[in-house]
Design a protein that fits this description.
Elements lengths: L1 H21 L5 H10 L6 H10 L3 E4 L5 E4 L5 H8 L13 E7 L2 E6 L4 H10 L5 E7 L2 E6 L10
Antiparallel strand pairs: 1-2, 3-4, 4-6, 5-6
């Protein structure tokens, strides 16, 4: 019985990831309904536990809605851009506002709710010149490990 329950849980969680990667879901109710379309019945309490376990979070979109995303996934940018909800200039990152340097520290100003995601993307880029990032409110800070002036990004 336990093996069957684990398999159902794994299938449900995979379906949650698939739905969030392929749709703009803005509430747990929408997600419950989307799961039901695939024949998966789930309570709000179970869904909340799954969302926490999968590290799913919400971000603000350009049209001031909040949608669920899967961290460590660039699919959300593709989804927003293909739905005409991303930035007007696709060469600019969604949520990015400005970049200022002070010595070996870069201060990046973002729209509310984007600092963590952009900082995470930078950390996951494994750029050797960047020691790490700290996300605070609508800003994140990035420093060079050797104290050199950072190169300008293109």
């Amino acid at each position: 019985m336990r093996i069957k329950d684990t398999r159902k849980k794994n299938e449900r969680q995979q379906m949650i990831l698939d739905i969030i990667k392929n749709r703009q879901v803005s509430s747990q109710e929408e997600l419950v309904n989307a799961l039901a379309e695939h024949g998966i019945r789930v309570t709000q309490a179970t869904l909340s536990r799954d969302i926490k376990k999968l590290h799913i979070t919400k971000v603000s979109t350009a049209d001031n809605r909040y949608v669920y995303i899967v961290p460590n996934s660039n699919d959300i940018t593709d989804t927003l851009l293909s739905a005409n909800r991303g930035p007007a200039n696709p060469n600019h990152s969604v949520g990015f506002e400005s970049l200022t340097f002070s010595g070996n520290i870069a201060v990046v100003k973002t729209r509310n709710g984007y600092a963590s995601g952009l900082a995470y993307d930078i950390d996951m880029s494994h750029t050797p010149e960047i020691l790490g990032t700290i996300a605070v409110g609508g800003h994140y800070f990035s420093g060079d490990e050797r104290g050199r002036q950072p190169r300008e990004s293109t």
